[in-house]
Specification:
The chain is of the alpha+beta class and about 200 residues long. It folds into 2 domains: about 80 residues, Ribosomal protein S4/S9, N-terminal domain (Ribosomal Protein S4 Delta 41, Chain A, domain 1); about 90 residues, Structural Genomics Hypothetical 15.5 Kd Protein In mrcA-pckA Intergenic Region, Chain A. About 40% of the residues lie in helices and about 10% in strands. The protein is globular and about 50 Å long.
Length: about 200
């Protein structure tokens, strides 16, 4: 499946947030990219604000349009508040949990680990980044991949207490998905209600 592989700083500047992690360029140029980026004063329409929030969420979790739409439709059919369920479904993706467990420095790197068959789910190798992990399941590193430098570097100094819905075992380099996170625990700066309003039109 195609993925955005362009300059990430450009996207981060577009939204004015470090959605891919710490960004040196954004810290120096906190305005939209382009020749007139620093002089733009155009008022954004309600639709534009809603669309911008959806785009930001897609880039944050690394999901393309069709997959995002399918996830939203699944959320809308589920019990609970649609916007919150949408974020909970995105948080339950295997690639996102690999990132949250500190096994990879970014979601892109986490996706690559999954695709290259370095990650296991309940002891079985899984190479589908979008796979939905259920509470109680264990995400781990394949035995022969535990010495990978990228994983050791990512884990170095990582604070696992940041995410109360995950339990990490450093000895086995694996983590248990304890429960679906509450919205208040999800750290992403996303106004999910705007996405719901966009799709409701």
């Amino acid at each position: 499946m195609a993925r955005y592989i362009g300059p990430k700083s450009k996207i981060a500047r577009k939204f004015g947030e470090p959605i891919f992690g710490p960004d040196k360029v954004l810290s120096k140029k906190n305005y939209p990219p382009g020749m007139h980026g620093s002089n733009r004063r155009k008022k954004t329409s309600e639709y534009g604000i809603q669309l911008r929030e959806k785009q930001k969420t897609k880039y944050t979790y690394g999901v393309l349009e069709r997959q995002f739409r399918n996830t939203f439709e699944k959320a809308s059919r589920s019990k609970g508040i649609t916007g919150e369920v949408l974020l909970q479904l995105l948080e339950s993706r295997l690639d996102n949990l690999v990132f949250r467990l500190g096994l990879a420095p970014t979601r892109d790197a986490a996706r690559q680990l999954v695709v290259h068959r370095h990650i296991t789910l309940d002891g079985k190798v899984v190479n589908i980044p979008s796979c939905t992990v259920k509470p109680g399941q264990v995400v781990g590193v394949r035995e022969r991949s535990k010495a990978l430098e990228v994983i050791d570097n990512a884990l170095s100094g990582f604070n696992h207490s940041k995410y109360p819905w995950l339990e990490f075992d450093a000895a086995s380099k694996s983590g248990k998905y304890l429960h679906i996170p509450e919205r208040a625990d999800i750290p992403e700066n996303i106004k999910e209600q705007l996405i719901v309003e966009l799709y409701s039109k």
